[in-house]
């Protein structure tokens, strides 16, 4: 979820970078041993895919559209480590190359969407060989949208409590969780449904192409 | 220099792309490979560059049997990569360095050339990209990317140039420069193209591949281009109604070569 | 080197800006970035305002509404948050216009390769998405329904996956061809 810089306090984003850094080291650990002709191109292309998938417009009821999150698709196809690293690289490129900002929200987005989102989908993929995998995959795909949205909403909602003047004036994001959570979660419930349908369709397609890991 | 002996290539669980290719290329020889889409021209170049390996027959480079194992032998692999270079049809895949200067100098630095800076500038000027040296490759146009990729390969002064549709997306000045360079270089040149004028310009030997991945013709370019039946069978010419002053008719012809 | 220093300067500036809570200093920062940008100044300012308009308007209007209801409105908050966001967004645009990010990251060859390759592929994929969208518009005689728009989304996703699959192989071969993975 794109959060412009300036809404998250340094008391949050600086430690978040430390936490994210630990997970980047974990995710990259295997890769460092296999920095070979397959891993680098694959990671680069998956990163590009993570960006481009976010440009696909999901048609929502009422004629409007929302952007695909896509982390479910990435987690499904590439597993949590690669999906997390790819998504993180995309956030970095968005902030520094495309000028879209978000360098202070980067660790929060990377952890919530890239790590948690991809993990949820990877867990759901354990049922892909089940007799009837669709309900499990559908729930996982839905949760890859909703759980990160909830986490981000909570992080934003805690900003007034974390950083404020003595008189209570917020210094960063001004709304508490009681406002932010429904404001962010409700639209994401709708996006989640649409994204679930698309993720399942992509799962079918990937299966026919033989792209899903065993 | 290059010897293919009854080489075939099939994808695992996939179709046979190349069939029974027997071919010799001498040092300094200029060979144009013609064929319709999907006849295996790109696959052939990748095989010659040691990126794919024959599933039948043998490929020898300067007498050595090219294999996956041999390409893991560092000194041999280093020499092969320096001497045999491939320009990909889509140059985006080839560009991975932070700046154009780094891209052109990449191979030179691997070879620990003490003249990298001079050679980078020299080849950039020859390809007309000297103004782009500090730019990031991903920010270039398609034609600029191709010129940068070419500069990077030519800077190594290879013995064998493999070029996949090199003049596609190149402006006329650059195409002209490239054709002149290919004719004058001492390196062996193997070029794939749809463009029959290109074949005529390079003027020496021509290979025509058929849609089954075999060699249908191997001989002088002039002989191939004069055989309209051959070209039609190889799907290199087309037939459609067109006008000549007061009448219209249809016959096999090409637009880009006379 | 120059790019790396600019990147470090940018990161340092971001942290400093988020430690400043007086709008006057933030607005001075906006002025400084504007002046330092030279001829790009107005373009940068316009681009920054447009990019923050949606989110900041939503937050500002929401704050106004809730604060008024609670009789807790503080105008200096609106000035603070909007000037801070404006400054940070302008800094971000200033940076992306000034540096070659792959060059700035060259302390790690892996990160530098990844950045260059990913950035190149992103441009290709953006064009692919755009081509599909414009072709769809071109082919729709009537206003497309939900089903047609869903099919477009699926077609775009499948095309992206096909492209990715092919691109990863091509890049791997190209890097191998240039001896990147040889010792």
Instruction: Tell me, rounded to a whole number, the average pLDDT of chain B.
Output: 86
Report Rg of chain B: 19 Å
Structural class of chain A: mainly alpha
Uncertain parts of chain A: none
**Total strand segments of chain A:** 2
- Report on the biggest sheet of chain B: 6 strands, mixed
Strand order in the largest sheet of chain A: 1-2
N-to-C order of helices and strands of chain B: EEEHEEHEHHHEHEHEEHHEE
Number of helices of chain A: 7
Largest sheet of chain A, if any?
2 strands, antiparallel
Widest sheet: strand ordering of chain B: 6-7-8-3-9-10
Which stretches of chain B of 5+ consecutive residues score pLDDT under 50? none
- Counting DSSP E segments of at least 2 residues, the number of strands of chain B comes to 12
* SSE succession of chain A: HHEEHHHHH
Which terms would index this structure?
heterotrimer, A: 214 residues, mainly alpha, two-stranded antiparallel sheet, 7 helices, 3% strand, C: 183 residues, flat
Give a verbal description of the structure.
The complex is a heterotrimer of chains A (214), B (258) and C (183). Chain A is an all-alpha fold. Chain A is built from seven helices and two strands. Chain A has helices at 10-33, 39-53, 71-96, 106-124, 134-157, 159-162, 177-209; strands at 57-59, 65-67. In chain A, a hairpin with a 5-residue loop joins strand 1 and strand 2 (65-67). In chain A, helix 3 crosses helix 7 (177-209) and helix 4 runs antiparallel to helix 5 (134-157). The model of chain A has no long low-confidence stretch (mean pLDDT 88). With 258 residues, chain B is an alpha/beta fold. Helices cover 33% and strands 28% of the residues of chain B. Chain B contains nine helices and twelve strands. Chain B is globular, with a radius of gyration of 19 Å. Chain C is mainly α and 183 residues long. Chain C has seven helices and no strands. Chain C has helices at 2-19, 23-36, 41-69, 75-98, 101-104, 109-139, 146-177. In chain C, helix 1 packs antiparallel against helix 4. Chain C is flat, with a radius of gyration of 22 Å. The model of chain C has no long low-confidence stretch (mean pLDDT 89). Chains A and C meet through helix 1, helix 2, strand 1, helix 3 and helix 7 of A and helix 1, helix 3, helix 4, helix 6 and helix 7 of C.
